[in-house]
Amino acid sequence: MSDITTQKWSGKVPRPRRTLLALFAVSCAVAGLVAIGCAEEPKEAEEPLMASFEPEVRQAANGMYIQRTPSEDITPSSSATAQYHHPVENVPYNTYYLKADERGCNACHEDLGALLDNSPYGHVKISNDLGIEVTVDQCFHCHTDSGAITNQQSFGAMIHGIHKDVENADCMTCHTASNNGNDMELWDAVKHHEMRGFTDIAAEVLGTFSFTQTGVDSLDKIAKMARQTAYLCQSMPSVGQGDASQWAITVSGDVENAFAATKEELDAEGQHHATMGCSCGGNPAGGTASVNAEVAGISVQTILEMARPNAEANTIVFTSADGYETALPLFYVRHHYSLIVWEVNGQPIADSMGGVNQLWLGSTPAFAYVRDVASITFETRQTPPPTPGLESRAEGNLPNVSVTEGTAQA
User: Which of 56, 83, 261, 312 has the fewest CB atoms within 10 Å, measured from its CB?
Assistant: First the structure.
């Protein structure tokens, strides 16, 4: 959002077509006078025209007043080019030329989060209760950037299909024409570069910020996140599915000691406890698909010590009971605290994440968190798999945070 004002919006001001035609005629006349050196400064008669193009102010459902388009200082300055770019009493560039109030998602949809929550097509909940605005940037996380929607990554094709029969909309409602070689760009993605009047935050503004990595979310919240991410992780077991006592893991490949072990046998090697985070790789800024939990299980480091991989081994492959697998560089797993987890917050993992166990990797998004791990294989590959976070991998490995509570002061 742009500036927030306390002036009540009384409705959208209609664009005066006749006045625009008159302005065009006056502009031509002024241009002719300038050519012969007889131009005069604009008169006070232009002031009503300026007022009619002031940025629109709306009142949201929660009572907040919102001004989507920034106001501009359109008076001449000491700059040598000021008279050219900002003639005296000129009309606002953002609203007169760019028609900024009439463009972008929020021109028609006041709250994108509420729009998705009430969509006839099921959608994971990306809005939250803390007033963090849902923007089209968050749509890109799954539908374009992260590649999480593997069968429908074309955000543009989907949105154009939805809006095909919308009245009073054209290409420029959602796009802007560029001369930078990027053709028709999405207006909401570039509007901050196109509009004038944004005010930088003063350097002396002070505030406080604090965070914790020791807080633990409730089992209900963890289970809720697991249900939400089912839209993206379609192979995941249902919450509550699986017998936590009847499973085993086979370890094989380029190792000195291949073995198979039941949960009880792994537990006897020494159970590890840790507070760890689980965050969806496509969780948007302010999203809720991120939790902290007290987890328990066997460390992958213990499994490495038991298996003793060959010196040439460079890849570790975790395969679930249904055949899904994740291959990771062995050095990456060695240097990130990782567990095969079977308890979350003191309860069987089936009660929250589903399945009988799950790989949890430190400082790694949950795209690699394989559930129901049935086998671990060590391999020596000519080219090991990419490290999570590299551009060659579709899933990003980005810092992430969920805001769970907060206060604001004016």
Answer: 312
